[in-house]
Amino acid sequence: MSLGRRIDEAARCFWDLAGGRGRYGSPVDLERAVAVGLPLGVVKLPRLSSAKVAEVLARIGTSGWTTAIDRPLRACLVADVGVGLVFLDGTDSEEERRFSLAHEVAHFLLHYLEPRRRVVDRLGTGLIEVLDRAREPTMAERLSSAMSGLSLEPFRHAMARDETGRAKHLRTESIEGEADDLAFELVAPADERADLKDLSGESLASAFGLPTWTGGFLLPSRAESDGVISLFRKKPS
Predict the structure, then answer these.
(1) What is the rounded CA–CA span in Å between residue 214 and residue 198?
(2) Which has the higher per-residue pLDDT, 105 or 3?
């Protein structure tokens, strides 16, 4: 399936689960839609950082989550056993939080739920125990997953960044591109953008309740990103 079709299908599925995009106003109240449609909680913390995320997860008993370098974040997704938490910087503007939440919801849909669904559809519900690390896969399950091109590894983030804050790996950058594509489709659908008379970037951002820096990405000439995880977005300095 092409990336464009994946994006369209993921957005349609999300709004079906939430009961329809029209229920959530304009600009869209994405947080309320998430509460209705997904097993995903939202946590807002002032001056969010990777260390603060680690502290919260330690308090609720999550093990094995570490970060080598503490750095500021706009948002972060942590997902396991079929559910997830999105952390947002509570000091950001409403517009920034709307896009940050859309970006992390996109990761949850495309890079957590979708791979799990593919495994279950192809190999059966018994593999959920493996995905959730309740047991090790059998040799037959390892072989079946390999032959099907499916991964039985648990969902993992990619925190690696260079000294400028850029992702160190091409796969990380491309997955971030996928998440951005779906994020825009969730909060500023292409068909709704096309219906607006004023197609300037600033007007588009304002119409959909997004930060002004996103305006250029909303213009009709924007090309679809190549896309292919980093669940962590660096706060601009």
Answers:
(1) 15
(2) 105
Whether the CB-CB separation of 176 and 223 falls below 8 Å is answered with: no
For 190-227, the three-class secondary structure string (H helix, E strand, C coil) is HHHHHHCCCCCHHHHHHHCCCCHHHHHHHCCCCCCCCC
d(CA 158, CA 170): 11
pLDDT tops 50 at residue 74: yes
Strand 83-89 to strand 40-45: parallel, antiparallel, or no bridges (unpaired)? parallel
d(C-alpha 23, C-alpha 33), whole Å: 8
pLDDT band at 1 (very low <50, low <70, confident <90, very high): confident
User: Residue 25 — left, alpha, or beta (φ > 0 → left; ψ -120 to 50 → alpha)?
Assistant: left
The C-alpha atoms of residue 67 and residue 203 are separated, in whole angstroms, by 39
| Of 99, 102, 145, the residue nearest 126 (C-alpha) | 145
Instruction: Show Cβ contacts of residue 79 under 8 Å, excluding neighbours closer than 6 positions.
Output: 85, 108, 112, 155
pTM: 0.84
**CA 118, CA 95: separation in Å to the nearest integer?**
33
- Range in 140-149, 195-204, 223-232 the model is least confident about: 223-232
Q: Are strands 73-80 and 232-234 parallel, antiparallel or unpaired?
A: antiparallel
